[in-house]
Write a structure and sequence with these properties.
single chain; mainly alpha; Ferritin; 0% strand; elongated
Length: 150
């Protein structure tokens, strides 16, 4: 069924593997969309500090997405196929930051579920992504608060 046969080791059933692949598709889709949104926000940023923070987050999103795509391919034997993004671009910088905050909160939940169900050897790869997403939430909060003062 799966080329690496994790289910035969007693650790991951076929049903659990399908759930992991579904979670991976969701997270990869969200990270891809967040990358687009962060590109948009970089263009709207008002100063060098904000631009640097957002650029760093976008770089991390790309790296996470690449790693998750590799994991998906290792587990399924195929490349991930994503649906077209379904979101609208926010009108203002503050709206975009607020929208990203909401998305990141849900992404942390998805990463947590993924961590719980992914085969054990991938947990050390997934856990730092949860930490990165928490840091992104803090940075976005900082940027939002900072933008309200100007």
């Amino acid at each position: 069924m799966y080329p690496n046969s994790y289910h035969s080791y007693g650790g991951t059933s076929a049903r659990q593997m399908e759930a992991v692949l579904r979670l991976l598709r969701q997270v990869i889709g969200r990270e891809s969309q967040d990358e687009v949104l962060l590109d948009y926000v970089i263009g709207m940023s008002r100063d060098e500090t904000a631009e640097r923070l957002i650029y760093g987050m976008r770089t991390e999103e790309r790296s996470q997405c690449d790693t998750l795509r590799q994991i998906y391919k290792q587990l399924s034997g195929t490349s991930v196929k994503l649906e077209e993004p379904d979101f609208s671009i926010p009108d203002s910088y503050q709206d975009a930051i607020g929208f990203l905050l909401e998305r990141k909160s849900r992404t942390v939940q998805l990463y947590t579920y993924l961590y719980m169900y992914v085969p054990n050897q991938y947990q050390p790869v997934i856990f730092p992504f949860i930490s990165d997403e928490h840091l992104h939430l803090h940075k976005l909060n900082y940027l939002l608060i900072r933008s309200m003062g100007t």
